[in-house]
Amino acid sequence: MFLTISTSGTAASPATDLGFLLHKHPGNAQTFTTSHGIAHVFYPEADPERCTAALLLEVDAVALVRRGKGKGRGGAPDAALAQYVNDRPYAASSLLAVAIGNVFSSAMRGVCRARPEAPAQPRSLRIEVPALPARGGPDLVRHLFEPLGWTVTAEPVALDTEFPEWGDSRYVGLALESEALTLSEALRHLYVLLPVLDDAKHYWVSSEEVDKLLRAGEGWLPGHPEHKLITSRYLSRRWSLTRQAMERLELVRLAEADDSEVEEIDNAVAEETEAEEKPTPLAVQRREAILDALKRSGAARVLDLGCGQGQLVQALLNDPSFTEIVGVDVSMRALTIASRRLKLDRMGERQAARVKLFQGSLAYTDKRLKGYDAAVLSEVIEHLDLPRLPALEYAVFGAARPRTVLVTTPNVEYNVRWETLPAGHTRHGDHRFEWTREEFRAWAHRVAELHGYDVEFTPVGPDDPEVGPPTQMAIFDISTATVCTAKEAKAA
Amino acid sequence: MTETQHTGRVLPVTDLSLVVLVGASGSGKSTFARRHFKPTEIISSDFCRGLVSDDENDQSATKDAFDVLHYIAGKRLAAGRRTVVDATSVQQESRRQLIDLAKQYDVLPIAIVLDVPEEVCAERNAARTDRADMPRRVIQRHIRELRRSVRHLEREGFRKVHILRGVEEAESATVVTEKRFNDLTHLTGPFDIVGDIHGCASELDSLLAKLGYRDGVHPQGRTAVFVGDLVDRGPDSPGVLRRVMSMVGSGNALCVPGNHENKYGRYLKGRKVQHTHGLAETIDQMDGESEEFRAQVREFIDGLVSHYVLDGGKLVVCHAGLPEKYHGRTSGRVRSHALYGETTGETDEFGLPVRYPWAEDYRGRAAVVYGHTPVPEATWLNNTICLDTGAVFGGKLTALRWPERELVDVPAEQVWYEPARPLHTEAPGGQDGRPLDLADVHGRRVVETRHQGRIAVREANAAAALEVMSRFAIDPRLLPYLPPTMAPTATSHVEGYLEHPAEAFAQYAADGVARVVCEEKHMGSRAVALVCRDTEVAHKRFGVPPGPTGSLYTRTGRPFFDDESVTEEILGRIRASVDAAGLWDELATDWLLLDAELLPWSLKASGLLRTQYAAVGAASGAVFPGALAALEGAAARGVDVTGLLARQRERAADAAAFTDAYRRYCWPTEGLDGVRLAPFQILAVQGRSLAALPHDEQLALLDRLVEHDPTGLLQTTRRLHVDTGDPESVRAGVDWWLEMTGRGGEGMVVKPAGAVVRDPQGRLVQPGIKCRGREYLRIIYGPEYTRPDNLTRLRGRFLNHKRSLAIREYALGLEALDRLADGEPLWRVHEAVFGVLALESEPVDPRL
Question: Residue A130 has what DSSP assignment?
Answer without folding.
Answer: E
